[in-house]
Amino acid sequence: MPVGWRWAPAWVLAFVALWPAPGYAEALMVLGALAAIARLLLGRFRDGHRLLSGRAWALTSVLFCSYWLPELVSAIDAVDHGRAFREAIVDLRYLPFLWLVAAAVGDARGRRITFGGLGVIVAAWTVDALVQAVAGTSPLFAGMDAVKRAVSGEGMCTAVEALQADRLGGVLGPCNLKLGVVLASLAPFALYAAARRFGAFGWLLAAGGIGLVVLLAGARAAWLTFGLVLLLSGWHVLGWKKLLGVFAFGALALATLTVTTPQVRERVERTTHALAADEHGVDMALSGRTRIWSAAACMVRGHPVNGVGVRGFRDAFPACDPEPGVPPAWGQGPALHAHQIVLEVLSETGAFGLLCWLAGLALALRAWRYAGEAAREHARPAMLALLVTVFPLNTHLAFYSTFWGGVALMLAALYAGSLLGRGAGPAPAPAPTAGDQA
Asked: SS3 for 169?
């Protein structure tokens, strides 16, 4: 990596570390994008080939376009024209930031710092959440809250939000209950780092700590995401037989927490409603999402080509609500998004948007298929993190929101940069397999 770009890994890690303070993270992302553009312009793009290969530049840009073009096209006849066009224009900032992220992992040094740093962040947030589970307070969040109170006189969350929190919030706090989903998506970086450094024992220790926090954080989508992470990373480290033991231990832990922890018990009981034969039971198990998905299908039928517009779901929901006047399971107000990636893309950006996303997926898979084994080993943590984040047979946060959209695009850039970056050097030693342990 050229000397002038050696700050890129630290910038990416600072962006992730600031996720508990979304406004500051967003500002840092914008500054990073501007810095990347300025650096490229000052160098007349002469450093481009030294940062990334031509294929990495292309894949990063194409993945951005597969996300952004549906936004632009959906704005043409969106329910809220002004908001849709604003979203499309503002989201152009992601492109130079994705170049920066890809460049951060484009060589061996960058990957070591960035992937290792992400693993450290996941470990720190996990330990902090475990302390909260025992002591009742997240030290990291309490520290940030104290600083904000000293500066502005107001805390990170209101007293009402703190009282209403029904699950472990950790460093993200009681007003941003996304800890389980975030840790589940970033878990591959911590698991692969632990396995590489400490072998199977390190993987098991990291999996146990993160898994316990994901369970206590309460988001059932995160449970499925983390289960996929364990499945796809654990077989290589432990072998299938030992991995079955891990899942058996996980089931035992879930059963124990169901008995001892009210929040976990409530979510398990809600999930069992899916076994009911009637539609109401399934809707209770899914926290009212069948009603949201029915509304999404209505929007697809009404706007099949380019959808209702990005972030227009809330505006279109009342006209498509299958149960108008009935209090929703999620609380007051309309649903804000479809809670499922395929339905979100179809309802907000239509068939054109879905085709763009599928084209991006196809090119990402093609890049993996034709990459060498060493390149795949380099990119494996980012690939797994991206895969489980966009796994379609799950519920999701809004991919066209500032927070989760930024997370997904960052993971896409980490994947493209680590898979196709230049100057990668020899592949790191793979984590010990079950046969090696024997």
From this structure: coil
